[in-house]
Please model this.
Amino acid sequence: MKIATYNVNGINARLPVLLQWLAETTPDVVCLQELKAPQDKFPLQAISDAGYSAVWKGQKSWNGVAILGRGIELQATRDALPGDDQDDQSRYIEATANGVLIGCLYLPNGNPAPGPKFDYKLRWFDRFIGYAASLLASNTPTVLAGDFNVIPTNLDAYNPDRWLEDALFRPESRAAFGQLLTMGWQDAARKLHPADRIYTYWDYFRNAYSRNAGLRIDHLLLSPELANDLVETGVDRAVRGWEKTSDHAPTWIKLSR
DNA sequence: ATGGCTAATTGGATTAGA
Model:
């Protein structure tokens, strides 16, 4: 089973790129972030015509997450992160796909830091860690995939010094991500490629992509039940060079189940 | 440190992203 995560930065603006990528790479499960579309503006017909079922949680203007399944019946289990009824931002959706629980997340960016947006990021992260602990306790084979908006280590940024004060790289953000790993979640890309330079994002400015001035901020975490099933990981970085493309590239894993 | 680029909105600039 091939599972991908892709921050599309506007699903309707990105539809031609998304459909082209789906046709070329045929992932079985796809987690999408930053739909930037209200619930009733999700392009279900085009996704369906491409051979995918979908569950999604939209929001006007910002955020929005979805899970697609290629010929798979997705059973939605949640469309929000538990723990705060006041939080109305669409940043988490979850479904089972062929016996694997898939959590799709769009963690808050948090800039500028410090400030209320960074506070919200850390609160959201805290709730996520608490919920991720309950998932581990359930002993269900689970993948947590999405845009974590965290640069985990120096190896994950083209120029770490430039990001030291940024919400994506501040110690609090890195520590929270590290806590997930300490709990038992495995960073799939790093499990197979511990020392490679891997980027999943290149900003739109200053020819970042052609200079390979990138960041690794899109991650797929595996629960221990899946530790022996990981066979391959990758980033479809060529997609970042297409016309009308997202600033993120699709990132994926292959499982032997 | 700044500015640069892209998308959404009922707009004619502003906000947010990272």
Remarks:
- Chain A is about 20% helix and 25% strand.
- The helical segments of chain A are 15-25, 44-49, 116-137, 171-183, 188-192.
